User: Fold these one by one.
Assistant:
Number 1:
Amino acid sequence: MAKKILIIDDEPNLVKILESRLKVNGYDVISASDGKQGLDKVRQDKPDLVILDLMLPQLHGYEVCRQLRADSAHKDIPIVMLTASGKARDIQEGINQGANAYIAKPFKPEALLGIIKALLWE
């Protein structure tokens, strides 16, 4: 059974690129375009991993991450923050909020796939 990945990002073009790349690599992909919708999809669809942007409508990525880590039903889902903000303090805050990995845009798709495989123990 294919692993399910949820992309929470408000950039439609990036979501399409990620969906395509992940599907070619055998993953089921779902997406959400804001933080609140992302939390709802986690609860409804129970993904195996979340790719999370920071700057989101409704709820900021840090808040989404914090809420997932505080929820016993979803606290163990790996979270990869994929965002344009690559400042050291932002990276540290992402890790502090519970992200398993932090990747700054622009990024190399192979690097993202490597992190996903490592986090999913593939």
Number 2:
Amino acid sequence: MKSILLAIALSIFIATTGFAQQEKEYSVLDSINLVNGLPDNESIEKIYDEIDFQRACQAYIWGLPMMATDGFVQSFKKDLDGEWGDLIWVKTFADRSYGITANATTDYFFTWVNLNETGPIVIDVPAGLTAGFISDIWQRCPADLGVPGLNKGKGGKHLLTGPGQEAPEGLEDYRIVKTETNHNLILTRIIEPDPKKATELQNAFQIYPYADRKNPAKTKIVEVGGRVWKTTQPEGFQYWVGMARMINNEPVNERDRLIYAQLQPLGIEKGKEFNPNERQRKILEKAAIMGELMAKTNGFLTRLESAEYVEGSMWDYPLVVGPTQRGESYDHLDERAAWTYEALGISRGMTSTSVGVGSVYHGQYRSSDGKWLNGSKNYVLHIPKDVPAKNFWTVTVYDNKTRYLIQNGTGYADRGSRDDIVTNEDGTIDIYFGPKAPEGKEKNWIKTNPGDPWFAYFRLYGPLESYFDRSWVLSDIEDVK
């Protein structure tokens, strides 16, 4: 059944992007001419085109985590005027609207550093209720910070060292964190409920070069202030422009050398300027279209067994890749592609299976009848009583195309346990989705935009035992007839 749905979904994606005609013209097998079992000269060119097209499509999938990083770094510098180590404060719904599948109600603080330019970086985390992580360009997690980190919220200094950098000896007061890339994201959230204490923690979180440790400057906090920023991969041909740039700015991982070899005939090679000829450009433009179709299908209608929540459920686990992105006998590819196409960052706190610790994420893209969620229709999510969340739970709606919070004109895109919602007499809760609120249900309603596809995340913060033993199971989003 799932394979049939995959085929249907791909045909829909192809039709809606205008790729159908291009794909039909790019069918090669019927146009190959053989002479004594060997291709003629014209067919040889077609075969090489097909080789490079297929390799480019797979390179698109391979590059998804790095290219989201590229888009984010470029926006940090250009759109937010960020300098390495500046903390960007994401504090309003408008600010969060450009964080890919961002939590709609939590403040974030983030910065980027380029260790090749700054040298090793000190991250001084204050004692208290903070939670965050460090992420390299491949969205691997060298370390969690704050409560989920090794210091368990007790505070302390971390020294982040990059490729070719060694930590000085005798740094007993530091936790040494080694990263394999130059560019690294540092993200934290202040989860302290007391506003005064939260402000103190915010001001105490410090980031500075180790070389400035004797007299470090106060970390600059920059508010987004309504500016438009970006956390998704570049689109179209710009995807490859960004890939060439990142490959030149970062060291080669041993695991990726064969991919680099496949990129060379396409004009992308470390140490060389990216200047593709007309043939290469045409192939790369088509591969960007097909690559994104593959990414959407792999994420929104995944075939990964590890993504299954419970048998028959339309909810799945969008996050099925660990912080190291390594399986027992292979490195995660489709797993990391599924997550990094629609989300950002992979930390240990996000993948914890300990009761009452971390968080869990569920994604739903189709209603209970197997059809894509549609902004023109009305739906309901019936949440069983006694939601197993130690801290809080929330359901959030995202735009299918952008993977950002839905922009519906209401100023919110989620409902959860921290909102003033109505609970049924039996303890269950109904959340409604649609272009217009059902009468009397406004507090439990999330507005959708007519004609626009959407998907939902259901988050549990501090999941409890009844979640892990499946004595509590989340219902599907249902079409309201």
Number 3:
Amino acid sequence: MDIVIDHFGRVDSLDEVLGPNYTRFLQLVNPDKHWIKVSGFYRLGKESENIRIAKEAYQLFKDRRLLHKLVWGSDWPHTQYESSISYDKSLKIFRSILEDEKEQRLILKENPCRLFNLECC
């Protein structure tokens, strides 16, 4: 059974993403079973640091060669954040977190196709 871990592993601060507990979390990620959803950045820590937390977490995923296990989702309906986030804004910020178009394609298309056993073009 595949398990999708939501919101970058749901870290609450920049210190946490750079700390030993997040390192341990990453060590426990089993590439045969686990997927990580890189969405809901606005749920990570304080508003002033949530994009930086997402960028740091994303870099750690890259460093651990987990790009093939990342998927994106809009996180709609954005419960408790309806007035501050939208689908378009969420996608735009996702693209600013991952500027590389090849990585975006992997996470937006190729990885979900593999996760859901769909034939990709």
Number 4:
Amino acid sequence: MSHDSRYSNKPRLKNEKEQAHPIWRGVGFGLMVLLPIISYATALILIDMNNTERWIMIPRDLLVRNQDPLLLIKFLLTIILMAGFAIVLTLIFQLLYSIFGPSRYGPTDVPPVAGRFKKYKR
């Protein structure tokens, strides 16, 4: 009985074309470290500006009594800013990838049909 390679239990390795460039691992790690730091620094700046400008009144329920009174506010604002920065960076990277990335179709793909056809009914 012959052995067919399609049915083997070995995990398949991805092609080199399917893998991301190794530099993106470094970029991802750098963003994973820098994004919380930048978000926390921005949260501190926004809280200081809020104290002088009085944009938003902070409810007493969000103030911590035993430690830094603005600890919960800093934490929540840091999480919100991290999500916002991540969304903006994702959109920027997506735009750059669509501009500089590989083409959508490979050399063996058929170009999309540019026409309207009726649905075939039996």
